[in-house]
Amino acid sequence: MKKPALIVFVIVVVLAVAGLIIAAVQLEDETVVSGDCSDNTYDLSLDGEDGGVQVDFSLQTPDSGQTWQVVVQQDSAVVFEGARATDDEGELEVELTADKDAGNDFTVVALSPDGTECRVEATHD
After folding, report:
1. Pairing outcome for strands 40-49 and 52-60
2. Whole-angstrom distance between the N-terminal and C-terminal Cα of the chain?
3. Cα(77)–Cα(55) distance, rounded to whole angstroms?
4. What CA–CA distance (Å, rounded) separates 100 from 37?
5. What is the mean pLDDT of residues 9-21?
6. Contact 118, 39 (CB under 8 A)
7. Is the pTM of this model over 0.90?
């Protein structure tokens, strides 16, 4: 008699934990856009956290030591503008936290020294 009760208890616990995991995944507020431009690949991640939007942009290029000009816009307002150099593996990154109340549409433009433009747009829901 005790074995069936234990089995039922284990099943209830497993279902409860699975429900919590599903709820946690659904609460995650992240948008990810990946793609390529010319010989480069990019990832743009927008993640809602603590009243802001964490913006993570990475660009993988074939060349190290290049300086790219990068502009990040949130609903047409510039929230970052500056130069980023690719590391030894040809990657550059920009990370910032934007005000979640300032808009949901983000655009990142990265311009290489030879004029190659990588543009990515994403909407954070």
Report:
1. antiparallel
2. 51
3. 14
4. 28
5. 50
6. no
7. no
